[in-house]
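re: that chain from earlier
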Amino acid sequence: MAAAVPAALISQAEAVADWLDALPDADFASPSVLSGWQVRTLTGHLVQALRGYVRVNGQPSDERPITIATFVDRYRPAAELIDAMTRDTTGDLSPTELRSAYTAALDLAREAAARPAPPVVLAPRGPLSGLDWCRTRIIELVVHADDLS
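^ sequence. v structure.
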């Protein structure tokens, strides 16, 4: 069961990569369904999500993990920070550069997913079980894949 969670993350990330590869460059400048974000901004956010998966997987914690529900509740207060980080990640990258950044992040995520997750990791909004951290990244990719389409 535990191996199925990172496998699902990689599968979803690969589906997004396929979608991005087929997207015409001009569509990256289109508005997304998220207020103030273009498709290119949302793509940068997904790069950030994959990089975050890798980074946090390397940060074991001895703290007691919070629940996914508590973790998700902490998104709203962090919205401005998430937006700023997303814009920093996206910068003025071209569609080709965004695709390359996504592919590079996916490659690193594949490597991280091949290793057992730590029992607890120090995620940006608190300690989570390693599997719950992976689950939050799957949710992020699924929800934003819908936002992209």
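Residues 20 and 99 are 7 Å apart (CA to CA).
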